[in-house]
Design a protein that fits this description.
Strand content: under 5%
CATH topology: Tetracycline Repressor, domain 2
CATH architecture: Orthogonal Bundle
Oligomer: single chain
Largest sheet: none
C-alpha cells in the first residue's frame, strides 16, 4: 500500500504543489484582511484540499495523456506509466477521483467556487492537449496555476477584485517563463514528434529571451501588486528576494548549457514562492 502511494505521489510530483500553493495562501490572507475576520481554519483546509486535488488531477492527466510520448523520450521514459510502475487505467481512475473531490470541495466552500470549478478543470486538464497544436502551451499552463490566488480569494470573499488578479498575473508570467526554460531540454524530441513549444518553434536562444521577457513582466506585476495593495517593508523584502530568484535561474541557464535546468526549475522556484509568500503574508498579518 505504501509503495503504491509513493508511486502515485511520484507520478504527480507532489512536491511541486509548492509552486502555486504559497500564492493561494496569499490570496487567502488577502481575503481575510479585507473581510476583517478571524482565521477560518476549516476554510483554509478546504482551499488546501482544492489545491491538492486540482493539481493531482492535472498532473495525473498530463502523465496519462502523454505516456506515449514519454515512452519514446529518453528523458521521460523512466516515468511511472511508460516504465510500467502504474497502469494507464489506474492513472485515469486516479484523475477522475481527484476531479470529483475537487468539484465537491469547491461546492462546499461556496456556490461561486463550485460553479467555477468546472471552468478551472477545463483549463488545467485542457493544458495537456495544447502542446499538440500551439507553441503558447506555456501560457496555458501559467493560466492554470494562476487560478490559485484568485480562487483562494473567491473562497473567502465570494467576489472578484483587482488585487488578487494582480497576484494571478504574477503567477501567470512566472510559471510561463520557467516552463519555457524546462522545455529547452526537449527541443529536438518535440520537433521530431511534431509537438509544439516556444523553444521548438523559435529555437533555444530566442526562447530563452522570451522567458526572460516574461519574467521581467512578472517582476513588474510583483511591484504593481505591492504598490496597489499598499504593502509594507516585509512585502518588499520578499519581492526583492523573489525577483532575485528570477534573475538567478535565468543566469544559471544558457542555450549551450542545459545541465542546470532542473536545479533552476525545481529548487529556485520552490524556494522563491515559499519565501515570497512568507514575507507577503507576514506583511498582511502585521498590518491588521
Amino acid at each position: 500500500m505504501r509503495a503504491n502511494i509513493r508511486k502515485f505521489l511520484s507520478l504527480i510530483r507532489f512536491s511541486h504543489t509548492l509552486f502555486a500553493l504559497p500564492f493561494a495562501l496569499i490570496g487567502f490572507f488577502l481575503g481575510i484582511r479585507v473581510n476583517s475576520q478571524l482565521l477560518p481554519w476549516g476554510l483554509l483546509g478546504a482551499i488546501i484540499l482544492c489545491m491538492v486535488f486540482a493539481r493531482s488531477a492535472a498532473m495525473g492527466f498530463n502523465r496519462w495523456l502523454d505516456s506515449r510520448f514519454d515512452k519514446l523520450n529518453p528523458r521521460t521514459a523512466s516515468r511511472e506509466i511508460p516504465a510500467g510502475l502504474i497502469r494507464a487505467q489506474s492513472a485515469l481512475i486516479f484523475v477522475l477521483i481527484n476531479c470529483l473531490a475537487f468539484v465537491a470541495t469547491a461546492w462546499m466552500i461556496n456556490r461561486l467556487c463550485g460553479a467555477l470549478s468546472f471552468l478551472a478543470l477545463a483549463v488545467i486538464l485542457g493544458y495537456s492537449y495544447t502542446k499538440r497544436f500551439t507553441p503558447f502551451c506555456h501560457l496555458i499552463l501559467g493560466v492554470g496555476l494562476a487560478l490559485a490566488p484568485l480562487g483562494a480569494w473567491l473562497a473567502v470573499t465570494d467576489r472578484f477584485a483587482s488585487l488578487p488578479i494582480l497576484f494571478s498575473l504574477i503567477v501567470l508570467f512566472w510559471v510561463s517563463g520557467f516552463d519555457i526554460i524546462y522545455a529547452l531540454q526537449d527541443v529536438d524530441f518535440d520537433r521530431s514528434m511534431q509537438l509544439h513549444s516556444i523553444p521548438a518553434w523559435l529555437g533555444r536562444p530566442v526562447a530563452l529571451r522570451v522567458s526572460r521577457a516574461l519574467h521581467l513582466i512578472c517582476a513588474i506585476f510583483v511591484a504593481a501588486a505591492g504598490l496597489y495593495g499598499h504593502f509594507g517593508p516585509l512585502y518588499w523584502t520578499g519581492a526583492v528576494f523573489f525577483t532575485g530568484a528570477l534573475v538567478y535561474q535565468q543566469g544559471r541557464v544558457s542555450p549551450a548549457d542545459l545541465s542546470r535546468v532542473n536545479p533552476a526549475f525545481m529548487t529556485a522556484n520552490g524556494i522563491a514562492s515559499c519565501i515570497f509568500a512568507v514575507f507577503a503574508i507576514g506583511d498582511l498579518i502585521t498590518g491588521w
